[in-house]
Amino acid sequence: MISQQKKSKTLHIALWIVQALVALVFIGTGLFKSVTPIPTLAGMWPWAGEYPNLLRLTGVIDLCGGIGIVLPALTRIKPELTVLAALGCAVLLMCAIGFHLSRGEAANTPFNLVMLALVLFVFWGRRMKAPINPRGKAGSLA
């Protein structure tokens, strides 16, 4: 039988892997949306040309979410912010899914659904099962 400590360590490692992947995707997407010219993005995503301000706003939110999902946990400075960043990313993804569905762009939602599952895993794991204690507190798995 697998010990509880081994399960906890496995979950902790899985969470770090998912956090790193999610951070890379959100930071990369955020930078891409923030620095790529609108006409270039509009050629790929028609909505980008129609809503350039929404595009830039979601780029900033993506960037903040990507940083927030890993940095507080990594530094152990206010690690509870990682939980809030995961929740914020989940809300953003649900809004993106709703936005694309309302425009008849259901084909654009599978990636968002996968990312939603990943950020909800981080939210659940870091809030309920494998939280990271702030710097200076004993018993941290970080």
UniProtKB/TrEMBL annotation:
Main location per the UniProt record: membrane
Entry keyword annotation includes Transmembrane: yes
Pfam families, per the entry: DoxX_2 (PF13564)
Cell location: Membrane
Superkingdom to which the source organism belongs: Bacteria
Alphabetical keyword list: Membrane, Transmembrane, Transmembrane helix
InterPro entries cross-referenced by the UniProt entry: DoxX
Transmembrane domains' residue ranges: 12-34, 54-74, 81-101, 107-125
Membrane topology: Multi-pass membrane protein
Record's protein name: DoxX family protein
Organism: Spirosoma flavum
